[in-house]
Specification:
There is one protein chain. Strand 2 and strand 3 form a beta hairpin. The protein has one domain: RNA-binding S4 domain (Structural Genomics Hypothetical 15.5 Kd Protein In mrcA-pckA Intergenic Region, Chain A, Roll). By secondary structure, it is an alpha+beta fold. The strands form two sheets. A four-stranded antiparallel β-sheet has the order 3-2-5-6. A two-stranded antiparallel ribbon has the order 1-4. It has three helices and six strands, in the order E-H-H-E-E-E-E-E-H. Helix content is about 35%, strand content about 25%. It is globular, with a radius of gyration of 11 Å. Helix 1 packs across helix 2.
Length: about 80
């Protein structure tokens, strides 16, 4: 079941759930709206921000390469 990713694109709130940072969309929304998430080094407050391969997401001192995560998730 990989309905979260489509054509190597994923929304920011879904990405946070996908990598296990949050367990619910509500938690992801709050983290994003509170300014705790950076995309490519810039604070992102849009939970629907579309991420693509090449983007980097930083939260809680951890940086995730979107392309690597999407590739590992779709190769199952």
């Amino acid at each position: 079941m990989n309905s979260q990713t489509s054509d190597n694109m994923i929304k920011l709130d879904q990405f946070l759930k996908f990598v296990g940072i949050t367990s619910t969309g509500g938690q992801a929304k709050l983290m994003i709206l509170d300014g705790n998430v950076k995309v490519n080094g810039t604070v992102e407050t849009r939970r629907g921000r579309k991420l693509v391969s090449g983007d980097q997401v930083t939260i809680e001192g951890r940086t995730f390469d979107v392309g690597e995560i999407l590739e590992s998730g779709t190769s199952k």
